[in-house]
Automatic annotation (TrEMBL):
UniProt GO cellular component terms: cytoplasm
The encoding gene: tilS
Keywords, sorted A to Z: ATP-binding, Cytoplasm, Ligase, Nucleotide-binding, tRNA processing
Organism: Bradyrhizobium amphicarpaeae
Domain of life, source organism: Bacteria
PANTHER family: TRNA(ILE)-LYSIDINE SYNTHASE-RELATED (PTHR43033:SF1)
Entry comment, domain topic: The N-terminal region contains the highly conserved SGGXDS motif, predicted to be a P-loop motif involved in ATP binding.
Family recorded in the similarity comment: Belongs to the tRNA(Ile)-lysidine synthase family.
CDD domains linked to this entry: TilS_N
Catalytic activity: cytidine(34) in tRNA(Ile2) + L-lysine + ATP = lysidine(34) in tRNA(Ile2) + AMP + diphosphate + H(+)
Annotated protein name in UniProt: tRNA(Ile)-lysidine synthase
Gene Ontology molecular function terms on file: ATP binding; tRNA(Ile)-lysidine synthase activity
Length: 352
């Protein structure tokens, strides 16, 4: 860790971090009470005070109803928000909690409630306090899960959900620097023991980071890799847009049937592999009923299509289907020189 990682964030630096949010009508700050999000609230309040005109800030805490201390932590956030002159709301995740996949369900509920709070506050953005350390952990998690280029790009600085922009202004900032900022300001924060609970994947991966850093691959290296992959991913997405237009043009404006995507097989086969994968993924996710499709399965489908087109191009050009497969609720077939993707008939949907 460099000395810079431990130095408190200056007002000038805070202005740079929040610069893109100056003209938003209002912002919701997602604050759990942990160090990262308390620092987000403190920095955002300081930034807002430095502006003559700027967005209104509302602090929101979600009580998932999973830990006894959560209500007290929410009250503590409210107290600190009041000290900073910011309105605060606590929203509760109500209803039955699932027995398996609890972290994912809690996360889903949290983002739904945060988006609701943003709409109620007239806010265009919800700000979370994801740090550089979170980004490094996300990359590792996705690596182990076998993600492709899009997943390995990790978290974007901005993304959209239900018409609300999720912004992560602290994505380049090391957690240690946020803690140093709070210490300098004399502000306390909650300690969530689930962050260290090795029953969950993320805390186990977190323990790996110092070992990787000792081998020369610190959080900065991992985050730089994610940024490079995000760049490459954006380029492939653009190429896929162009390839879709190219394939449509080759169809000379023949109107495609509604609810069906269809590509000329030989023109499709000439495109780069990563682009072919994107086109299949897009079509399957748009038309299938069980998406999103698993990348590994789409890779296997592409291999089967390539094999069918190259080993028997004549048969591929004739009317009879030489390949028919269901995947993620979509039916993919190769017949009459075309690859067709359509919703799978109801009774076949389980086969993906
Ligand atoms: N209970 C909460 N109330 C309000 N905001 C929260 C709460 N929990 C998390 N957040 C926001 O989400 C950010 C990320 O939190 P955390 O890393 O714990 O989430 P996660 O479960 O890993 O989900 P994600 O996939 O969003 O990273 C926090 O910095 C904070 O801004």
């Amino acid at each position: 860790m460099s000395d810079n990682d431990l130095s408190p964030i200056s007002t000038r630096e805070a202005r740079r971090l929040f610069a893109g949010l100056k003209s938003a009508p209002a912002l919701v700050l997602a604050v759990s009470g942990g160090p990262d999000s308390v620092a987000l609230m403190w920095l955002a309040a300081r930034w807002r005070r430095s502006l003559a005109r700027g967005p209104g800030l509302t602090v929101v805490t979600i009580d998932h109803g999973l830990r006894r201390e959560a209500a007290r932590e929410a009250r503590e956030v409210k107290r600190l928000a009041a000290e900073l002159g910011l309105p605060h709301r606590t929203l509760r995740w109500r209803g039955a909690k699932p027995k398996t996949g609890l972290p994912a369900a809690a996360r889903e509920a949290r983002y739904r409630l945060l988006a609701q709070a943003a709409r109620a506050a007239g806010a265009s953005h919800v700000l979370t306090a994801h740090t550089r350390d979170d980004q490094a952990e996300t990359l590792l998690m996705r690596l182990l899960r076998g993600s492709g280029l899009a997943g390995l790009s990790a978290m974007a600085p901005h993304s959209e959900r239900d018409g609300i922009v999720l912004a992560r202004p602290l994505l380049e900032v090391p957690k240690a620097q946020l803690i140093a900022t709070l210490k300098r300001a004399g502000i306390g924060f909650a300690d969530d023991p689930t962050n260290r609970d090795t029953a969950f994947t993320r805390p186990r991966l977190r323990a790996l980071l110092p070992l990787l850093a000792a081998e020369g691959g610190d959080a900065r290296t991992l985050v730089r890799l994610a940024a490079r992959l995000a760049r490459a991913n954006a380029a492939v997405e653009l190429l896929a847009d162009g390839a879709e237009r190219f394939l449509r043009l080759r169809d000379r404006g023949d109107a495609p049937q509604v609810g069906l995507r269809s590509f000329e097989a030989l023109a499709f086969a000439g495109l780069p592999e990563e682009v072919r994968l994107r086109l299949l993924l897009r079509a399957i996710n748009a038309l299938g009923h069980e998406g999103p499709a698993e990348l590994g399965k789409v890779e296997a489908l592409l291999a089967a299509l390539d094999q069918a087109i190259t080993t028997s191009p004549r048969a591929a050009a004739k009317g009879r289907a030489i390949l028919k497969q269901t995947l993620a609720g979509a039916l993919i077939s190769l017949a009459g020189g075309r690859i067709q993707i359509a919703p799978a008939p109801a009774r076949r949907r389980k086969g993906g």
